[in-house]
Design brief:
Strand order of the largest sheet: 1-2-13-12-14-10-11
Largest sheet: 7 strands, antiparallel
Distance between the termini: 42 Å
Structural class: mainly beta
Shape: globular
Number of helices: 3
């Protein structure tokens, strides 16, 4: 059963937001950008200089659950944490809804079934990373190509598919939410964005395509969208999260 975020947010969550100024552990390529009176935080990472990792459970099996709980230093090279965000949709036990691969281990399988909610708006897709290259593919294409990856997370819907906006998005839509997503500018560059105020799917997808020049982009989530980005004074430590995407500086 898919996690009903709206119900969870209304009755089950104590929200904690830290508004205290943060000091960056290292410089981060994040900025505040605007398009048509909407503001976004954008963070772009060249994977030749940054390492992308996924987190879900600690070694003892407990879910990390918050951006503040993940390691702030990369154990493999001592690189500092420069960015983190929720890594897709999850169930009440905070397990990923779809495919989840962490450090080469598949911990949850691909979901191709139909259902209700944004995850199941087809086509959905998969963000995958191997070394210093990354990609986003529709789920069906991922299964056809079966790329070997170190980390992958499935979410949905796709925002941009081969330079085209998802066909089910409507310019006339009035459904506005805080949204976060990820796009691919090229195989070495991953681009994350989160809106600072509610936007529609069409507005968010158009921003990824036209402003961030991403040929493929994937929606991560809506109301629970949160980021850790010290260079722009953001540390959103609210909502119990499931999978988390983190980016570390490479030495």
């Amino acid at each position: 059963m898919r996690f009903d975020h709206a119900a969870f947010l209304c009755v089950s969550v104590l929200c904690l937001y830290t508004a205290n100024p943060l000091h960056a552990e290292t410089s981060s390529p994040c900025r505040i950008d605007t398009q048509e009176n909407h503001s976004f935080v954008v963070c772009e990472f060249d994977l030749r200089h940054y390492e992308l990792k996924l987190f879900w459970k600690k070694p003892d099996g407990e879910v990390y659950g918050s951006l503040q709980n993940i390691p702030h230093g990369n154990q493999s090279n001592n690189g500092s944490l420069v960015f983190a965000t929720n890594g897709g949709m999850y169930r009440p036990d905070r397990s990923p809804v779809g495919l989840y691969i962490e450090n080469g281990r598949e911990l949850q399988g691909v979901v191709t079934a139909s259902g209700s909610g944004n995850f199941y708006v087809k086509p959905n897709g998969i963000l995958f990373v191997g070394g210093n290259t990354a990609g986003i593919l529709e789920t069906s294409r991922f299964l056809q190509l079966h790329p070997r990856v170190e980390n992958a997370t499935q979410s949905g819907p796709m925002l941009v598919i081969g330079g085209r906006i998802h066909p089910k998005f409507l310019s006339s839509s009035t459904s506005e939410k805080i949204r976060n997503g990820v796009g691919i500018a090229d195989t070495k560059k991953v681009v994350f964005a989160i809106s600072n105020e509610p936007v529609t799917f069409m507005q968010f997808a158009t921003y990824f395509r036209d402003q961030l020049h991403c040929s493929d982009a994937l929606y991560l989530d809506g109301s629970i969208s949160s980021i850790y980005a010290p260079s722009v004074q953001r540390a959103d430590y609210f909502w119990p999260l499931g999978p988390i995407v983190a980016v570390y500086a490479r030495d």
